[in-house]
Design brief:
Elements (H helix, E strand, L loop, with lengths): L1 E7 L2 E7 L5 H8 L18 E4 L2 E4 L12 E3 L15
Parallel strand pairs: 1-5
Antiparallel strand pairs: 1-2, 3-4, 3-5
């Protein structure tokens, strides 16, 4: 286990986690975010897509260590109930 810092939807989180953990699992299991979903587990279906460094990535095939310190945006971080993002 290692201390990994993730910046998700504008908040910083410090997790004690295996660096090879898929980002999807950290988002769903450790941070209780439900926007990214498990689909195929192969990075093909897009259900787990998040935005990192302005690029859409598949969180099921991305290790948490690969995105440490980068700004990560999930579906929950795109807009608000009052002002939803077009994707929402």
């Amino acid at each position: 286990m290692s201390k990994i810092t993730l910046k998700v939807n504008g908040a910083t989180h410090s997790l004690d986690i295996d660096p090879a953990t898929p980002l999807l699992y950290a988002l769903s299991d450790d941070l209780a975010l439900r926007g990214p979903k498990f689909g195929c587990g192969l990075g093909q279906c897009g259900a787990c897509t998040v935005i990192v460094r302005g690029q859409a990535i598949r969180s099921c095939i991305t290790w948490v260590s690969q995105v440490e310190g980068a700004e990560i945006t999930t579906l929950e971080g795109l807009g608000t109930i009052e002002n939803p993002h077009p994707l929402q």
